[in-house]
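Researcher: I need the complex structure. Ligand is guanosine-5'-triphosphate. Inputs:
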Amino acid sequence: MGDVSSSAADFHAGFACFVGRPNVGKSTLMNALVGTKVAITSSKPQTTRRVIRGIVHRPDAQLIIVDTPGLHRPRTLLGERLDSLVLSTLTEVDVIGFCVPANEPVGRGDKFIAEKLAAVRKTPVIAVVTKCDLATREQIAEQLLAVSALADFAEIVPVSAQSGEQLDVAADQLIARLPVSPPLYEGGQLTDEPEQVLVGELIREAALEGVRDELPHSIAVVVDEMTPREGRDGLLDIYAHMFVERPSQKAIVIGHKGTRLKDVGSRARKQIEALLGTRVYLDLRISVAKDWQRDPKQLRRLGFYD
Ligand SMILES: Nc1nc2c(ncn2[C@@H]2O[C@H](COP(=O)(O)OP(=O)(O)OP(=O)(O)O)[C@@H](O)[C@H]2O)c(=O)[nH]1
Ligand SMILES: [Mg+2]
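Model: Output:
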């Protein structure tokens, strides 16, 4: 065990949050650093809708990463709620990781966020250039310059969550800015997200696959109940509801003779079984919650509070 008193003085623990435009790879980066899938990811912008915490354990530190929804100029009430969620998170962390992808030019969306970050002056900001596996060396070099022109960052780190390149460097840079503190979570705990929420997210991730246009934004999932089946060891009954905004969307999600919905259910079930380590019976229903993204009452029902 070694000398407990001196190791306690050397232990660092605290919070980092990842911010950036939608779809720049924040959740993928958090998952890669934590080493497991804590947050769902997709090729559709605005996948993350909650503040999700993932925990990185080191012998001398505990880094709690707070993944946030992509920050953008909101077009719906949901968008407004998500933006204010991100902004309030910024003030509560020890260090901010501002994610900008290597393979897209720095643009207005990034400037918009850099301005927001300038407002939380006390908190150090590390710029993380993501998806470097998708860019050439020259592009990465140019991107580092363009990003450094955005603001005066404490550090700029190019990474790839896909190849794993430089992930340790990014983690080190974040950890270096954490205060001396005992661990805040138990060893081995990778997230503090309730199982019911993780399950709902896995269903939504399965539903996002293969749908296009506005539909991804219109999908919400609520898990109503999770109960062990009586008399059947190791079987969990899960009752969940998927919501869309219009009847036409419902038809798309259900698919011809219900094949799409069935497919979504079985893909989600496999993911849930892997997460919980138990067999699952998934009862997945679909309903229309008319224009829920713009309706305060519906938003509350779906768990998005103001
Ligand atoms: N090639 C490559 N793709 C990546 C990398 N990181 C993320 N992606 C892809 O980029 C897309 C978006 O990733 P997410 O992690 O969902 O992005 P996000 O920033 O969390 O998005 P929002 O939650 O919508 O704000 C997904 O298709 C990922 O697979 C990377 O390092 N390399
Ligand atoms: Mg995300």
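Model: Summary of the prediction. The pocket of guanosine-5'-triphosphate (ligand 1) is lined by residues 20, 22-28, 41-43, 45-48, 69-70, 130-131, 133-134, 160-162 (CB under 6 Å).
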